[in-house]
Amino acid sequence: ISDFKSAIVAFDIFIGDYPGTEFKEDALYYKFDSAYQLAVNSISSKMEDRLKVAKTAYGNLMKYKSDTHYKVKADEMNERVEKELQNFTK
Q: Would you give the DSSP letter of residue 89?
């Protein structure tokens, strides 16, 4: 779990330090993937907040490049995020 937390921080730093990089799409996807993995593998008391972070990361990827070559996988992951979030709104 701490590896995913570290990855999220590292991708944030990378994106902040190199906003024009050709690897921004990759960094945004891998940040989302890390946030997703952290969220779905969390204990229930931390899951809702982490799912929201993953949802935001997905939104940032789609805002940057809605036709990303990661779209199929990212959409599948986001569907699970949305489904899991529904468990907290009941």
A: -
pTM: 0.94
In Å, how far are 33, 54, 64 from 20, measured between CA atoms?
21, 23, 12
Q: Which residues contact 40 (CB under 8 A, 6 or more apart)?
A: 47, 51, 80, 81, 84
Residues whose CB falls within 8 Å of the CB of residue 57, separated by 6 or more in sequence, listed in order: 8, 28, 31, 32, 35, 36
Q: Read off the pLDDT of residues 12-54 as tens digits, 9 standing for 90 and up.
A: 999 999 999 999 999 999 999 999 999 999 999 999 999 999 9
Angle at 44 between CA 41 and CA 46, to 5 degrees: 80
Decide: 8 and 35 in contact? Cβ < 8 Å: yes
Instruction: Give dist(CA 78, CA 86) in Å, integer.
Output: 12
DSSP state of 88: T
